[in-house]
User: Fold this.
Amino acid sequence: MDRALVDRLASSARTRTARALLARALEQLDERHELGRKVAWEPELAPILEEFIDRLTAAYGSLTRVSGKRILDIASGSNSSRSPTTGKRTAMFEPWFARLLLELGAEPVALDGGDLEGERFEHHRVDLGKAGALDFLEAASFDGVQDSRLFGSPEFRKAYPRQRDHKRIKAEIAGQERRVLKPDGVVIHSDIPRV
Assistant:
């Protein structure tokens, strides 16, 4: 992977220790998932990773505090995800957040309707539009939760095109997030407005 890309992505970490941890994680992502080649092919992937890094830093203060945290990634993206603009298979919506968490020493649990086979973290194929779809997750069992990009997913929009469905699903997911978070857990990022 291009050293300039590693340096650019790692520069957002606040301390030398966090930068070194992040640089190692990015190198592992390149080795395991061809991150450098995919960023070269789809440059929009780099800002997505920067966004994930910034979210984790904001939520935990430092990337060094992510290790050991059990974090739920709702609508994680998958190995079969499609671009909302082209409809073609894209690396931009692979499960990069969960992959990054794993390389930082966290315990990610990814949920998506697409293919996550072969990933090294716990994952479940879930239709996030169905009521009770997250009931199988234990209450108060996560240190952090992220939901992101569900409502922009072409697959989701095709399955649930009506706005009234979106309203119902947002309420369901918001309630489930509150239920599965530990009392001191954090919402890392959510596309669902909080009431």
About this structure: The chain has a mean pLDDT of 92. The chain has seven helices and five strands. Helices lie at 3-10, 16-33, 35-41, 45-60, 96-103, 154-159, 163-180. The CA atoms of residues 35 and 65 lie 24 Å apart.
